[in-house]
Amino acid sequence: MWRRVFALTVKEFLALLKDKKSRLVVFIPPLVQLLVFGYAATFDLKNVPFAVYNEDRGNFSRELLSRFRGSGNFTEVAALRNEGEISSVINRKEALLVIHIGPEFSRNLLKGGTSPVQVIVDGRNSNTAMLAMNYARTIVNEFNRTWSERSGRTGPPAHLVTRAWFNPNLESRWFIVPGIVGLLTLVVTTLVTALSVAREREQGTFDQLLVTPIRPVEIIIGKTLPGFFIGIAEATIIILATVFWFDIPLRGSVLTLYTGIILFILSAIGIGLMISSLATTQQQGLLGAFLFLVPAIILSGFTTPIANMPPFLQDLTLLNPLRYFMVILRGVFLEGAPFHRLINQFWPMAVIGMVNLTIAGWLFRHRLY
Amino acid sequence: MNGKPGESGPAESRRAGSRMRLAGLVRKEFLQILRDPSSIAIAFLMPVVLLFLFGYGVSLDAEHMPVGIVVEKPDQDTSRFLGSFRQSRYFEPVLLSTMPEAVEALESGTIDAIIHLRQDFSKKRKTSGDAPMQVIVNGVDANTARILSGYIEGAWIRWLGHEAIAEGTDLKIPVQMEHRVWFNSELRSRNYLVPGLIAIIMTLIGALLTAMVMAREWERGTMEALMVTPVARREIILGKLIPYFTLGIGGMALSVLLAVFLFNVPLRGSVIVLFAASSLFLLTALGMGLLISILAKNQFVAGQAAIIVTFLPAFILSGFIFDINSMPAPIQVITHLIAARYFVAILQTIFLAGNIWSVIAWNALALVVMSTVFLGISRRKFRKRLE
Amino acid sequence: MANLQPEGTCKAGNGNAIITLLNVSKSFVTGKRTIQALDNVSARVQRCMITGLVGPDGSGKTTLMRLIAGLLEPDKGTVTALGRDATAESLLVQASAGYMPQRFGLYEDLTVSENLNLYADLQGVPGDARHERFRELMHMTGLGPFVSRLAGRLSGGMKQKLGLACTLVRYPQLLLLDEPTVGVDPVSRRELWSIVSRLVREEGMSVLLSTSYLDEAENCNEVIMMFEGQILGQDRPEKFSSTMEGRTFTVSVPGMKGRILQKKLLMREDVTDAIVQGDCIRLVMQTQGNPDASALVPDTPDITLRPVQPRFEDAFISVLRQQRSARIMNREEDTKPGPSPGGNGGNVIEVKNLKRRFGDFYAVKGVTFSVERGEVFGLLGPNGAGKSTTFRMLCGLLPPTEGMLSVAGHDLRRAPSAARAHIGYMSQKFSLYGNLSVRENLRFFISVYGLTGNAGQKKIQWALDQFELGDHAESTSNDLSLGHKQRLAMACSLMHEPDILFLDEPTSGVDPLARREFWHRINALAEHGITVLVTTHFMEEADYCDRLAIMTAGEVLALGTPAEIKSEVRSAKIPEPTMEDAFISLIQTSARGERAS
Predict the structure, then answer these.
(1) What residues make up the domain containing A296?
(2) Across the interface, which of B140, B307, B348 has its CB nearest the CB of A125?
(3) Distance from C128 to chain B by nearest Cα, in Å?
(4) What pLDDT is stored for residue C142 in this prediction?
(5) DSSP letters of C177-208?
(6) Residue A66 burial class via C-beta count within 10 angstroms: exposed 0-12, middle 13-18, buried 19 and up
(7) Same structural domain for residues C218 and C269?
(8) ipTM greater than 0.85, yes or no?
(9) Do A19 and C432 lie within an 8 Å CB cutoff?
(10) What residue ranges define each of the domains in chain B, with the CATH number in brackets?
């Protein structure tokens, strides 16, 4: 039996990697996507364009504004001279944020009172708007703290000391890039396996295979192994890039990480082979893979938290192997999660993989044409 | 022999012949669309599925976030503080008594943040007037962490205000930030995701579907049969553009209806402007689809190329989810080549802000340039030859 | 077939050609290879007649057609059609020429009338003239009852007729038909030919028609013979045949199996061709003159030799032979060192009332036959007759809807995997792993059947030698010519020395020489006691089988030895029926039978 499986595996590898074009398709787009995702997919704001309408002539408003300019998150694009300009600068998307400081700002501060500062935000992209507001609030709070110290005023009776664990500078790249390991491994293994049987069906070689003494279980193993090794290779390359190129810490054990990778790849292959055994043409295989991948990625918690979804969608994500793998990736990379804490993520992937592989094997022989 | 079309007859009859050929091609395409469930699926089912997934599945609006509050010595002060968290819809406070317990909960993911009030909290607050409250957020998901700490800060300020009122003093904060959010005052992420999604859907119909059906004609040999008839290049191209343009506008109308009536996204600008801008974008997408199919001539390659060249960039580099200004400079330059970028800007403006011509005009101009370029190249590259 | 001499409207013989090719060359690049599709070709095609373009696959027929239709640009030389340059003025040529590509681009999801309307729009047929024209075309093609059927649901023959009708919505002066009869059943084939000859006769059309069926060449007024991008000759078909005068005979030896006699004849140096034809062998000698009958085959005193009329095919094979200077059988060697011939008798394959339904359509409607050990059994019929479906059920690839079947005592669908080691299967399209090399393909199949190490290496070497693939061992199988692919596919299905061999359309698209080679291998296998089940749509290949079943529309029309089947239809009108005659008359009888009941 193992001789046949070995022959099948060798053949799959040759068929997949012998030709230059398909070699490129397997390895180049994922790396390009890694770079584009790694750099472009970020929720951190830099260079938020802002405009200032400052009616105050005192020093303190200037000091507050210089804090904005020096923060690295904001870039001043315009100084406005009247209130009417506010709406036009925001409407035209020239500035995301307008800071309006009233004429009494410095005088009020000196008197020991409270000076309001108005911040107007473009809410067309609500997430960006909220983050920009949070950044602004932090700058204002910092200003308040130093002002209180300098003027000897008593501050508020209690203050917050905020620290972020696991990702102290709150860089979203630390969140996104480990997620890409899962995303791209899923895309590559699903595509490689989803097209493998369909391609043989189209070429007619699958019939040839079915009339040989090969058993379905051997076909399954023979088709699984190449996808498995390519998935592992792909994941390893991306992990190396994550650690050495993007400088993201790998705090947990590599063993735990690879346990997760192996289980995840098996479940992805199971789904890929099932799509493949249902498809008669590569076209259908591709469409099927696409129809699976898009929801799987959206409902995985890759960019947006699963907790924000309505309950019925949250339940649906339980069927998605990528969901569990995302937790493992981020747990191992950033939190240094130990093996035992991730057991609840491991077993669902194993179940999903086994069920799909079994169905795929059954379909190989019993599918009605 | 019935007439001699092609030979220089009167211009009138030549035009009539061209009209007849074009009408024939368009009719054929519509019949095929009606009989091929997969094009209907891409044009009408896919938008609905994607809108549902994004409308419900993708949300950056965090609510009911589990926050562990460790109170080492509960008293009146701390319970008032707790109360301010209980009232907010953003939090799901979990009361914990010891710090190790809280750390365990944070690590296992059952809570997203810890607020730690030490034993001496009330005492310090009364004596020194400056009691530290330790806040630890799980920073793994940086975006959620930032939003969460913003909410905690908000709750803290509200608590300070209540305390001041209770004590009969006014809260002494030197600078108080008042914020106003325009266009989407509740900051619902759905309001900007759903309009942006329309750009993605139209990319799918315009580029993916068109590339595939055109490649199908090459694969099945029907293109060869068309080419030996007196039909002109322009007529073949128009014969594809007109039906898929119509289909794209149909998908677009469906998406707009769903957006407005199901997801309650406001539509503040004019519907006519919206459709005009969509037509421009659709022409660009169709141009890309045609070009891909002319270069690929094979459904499999055309499909993959369309996904990699049009769909993925429309997703990531269009400003639909991720802010373009925050991307590194070289990638920002690349985004200028992505048609969806301009369309997303127009869509978010028309839906949420209204007819702001300065935004619409420039982006529309960019789309005009891009559609001209793509359709022009397609027309040049498309030959009535089999090589 | 009817007299095809043009008359009436056509003023033939005024000397001006409708197509002129002058020093035309054209090459394509695929992968790493450059294929010279046409190599400095010059020819003239006359008006008002049917000119046949004959040659094996890959000889450049389609490229030539496409150049004339203005779909390709020549690398060198000029193509003139209807007095215009086909490259520079392609739109004008296309306006008055009709071209039907090999795989006519019918929109399969459109109905017959929608397809016709589309092409009428494209050809600018005015609405009022359409009704009359469509009626005429439907009458001519017999598609009248099917106007609202989807084109994809038509049979192969009907599709070709619809393709022709679409090309004819406006009568062109010049009609280019690229292999219009491939895969079409004999009845439809005759109908297509009678339509074309009527068009030439009554409408004065000029027709250029390419074909790889050599018997069709004899229906043309003139034939252009092509091979590997070159024109080997152009003349009236009788002229070609007449060069073979005095070289063609039939040979028979009572009591000797046709294929054994054939093998013995082919071993001789002075034999150009020998094919099984009914009970005897059709023999083509290299030189004129009566050979000594008794010396032809040693130890056969009762051999009879009769001279016969030469055919176009004889001339064609003879020319190809000279080109390739290769012989079919030049070695006294076993094709397979397989099991010794088992005791004849005993059914290896048994099929009873086998049915297969797809949706509401029965592809196979109750087929019954059995095959004995060591027999070559043929399933004959046009495309879509249900041959492949029957085959796939026998191989266990498709569950039958109803009925019983057994192969070597097993239903392969449920048999243990070891049972499958006794069968070999070669599917349509010569399924190979395209980007694997020849050696890798062989190695894969050999290890799948559990042979490794030294024995495996030996076996691979055997296959490379036996199938003459040694020179190509390291080339990627996608880059092989069709003939080589066929040999490799057959080698792969034989690697494990099966007892039963299933061959699905093993000869389609392969040139006549390769087909002869192929049948030799089959004969050799049968001699070793291997049971061979083969499907084909070439009627003349029936003579190679021991027994055969003729299928059409999912039913077996006739079952028996070739001689038995032919004798069923022997009549005064056709005293010596060919297999094609038999097929046509069987179809007609069954149609009449249906009408009667």
Answers:
(1) 2-41+172-366
(2) B348
(3) 12
(4) 83
(5) EESTTTT--HHHHHHHHHHHHHHHHHH--EEE
(6) exposed
(7) no
(8) no
(9) no
(10) 21-58+188-381 (no CATH), 65-167 (3.40.1710.10)
